[in-house]
């Protein structure tokens, strides 16, 4: 299930990029996460979007992806709370995306950084935060 959600996020971005370039990839990344969180066929009751967002990050911001995994792992080890690990990694994701766009650094393997990158990061993070705030808290011990 985890691998399928990651693949879904990655594939959505690649389809968006193929259709509409870099900004299409960023828009598709957000809509793929939103579709995971609010699927029509389940009465708009879905997951939190974290794994799907990770796949979208891998496609849209591959240079940051290893940092995202590392921050998530360290925050999870320190807090033992998936929610706190997600908050930490997501906040840094937004900061990195804004920095990358502002500095005009290359995005090796991903779409050219435009304003779409930080907007994608911000919108996806806001959606995931909303899902965590509107659903019960998950502890790391509960996921094993």
What does this entry show, briefly?
This protein has five helices and no strands. It has helices at 2-37, 50-60, 65-79, 82-103, 116-133.
Beta percentage is: under 5%
Number of helices: 5
Secondary-structure element sequence?
HHHHH
What oligomeric arrangement do these chains adopt? Answer: single chain
Unreliable residue runs:
none
Largest sheet: none
Number of strands: 0
- CA-CA gap between termini: 14 Å
| Main structural class | mainly alpha
Shape: globular
Roughly how much helix do the residues carry, as a percent range? over 70%
What is the radius of gyration computed over CA atoms, rounded to a whole number of angstroms? 14 Å
Fold and architecture overview:
Helices cover 71% and strands 0% of the residues. It has 5 helices and no strands. Helix 2 (50-60) packs antiparallel against helix 5 (116-133), helix 3 packs antiparallel against helix 4 (82-103) and helix 4 runs antiparallel to helix 5. The longest helix has 36 residues, at 2-37.
Name a few traits of the molecule.
about 70% helix; 5 helices; mainly alpha; about 140 residues
Question: How is this fold's topology laid out?
Answer:
Blueprint: H1 2-37, H2 50-60, H3 65-79, H4 82-103, H5 116-133
Helix pairs in contact: 1-2, 1-5, 2-5, 3-4, 4-5
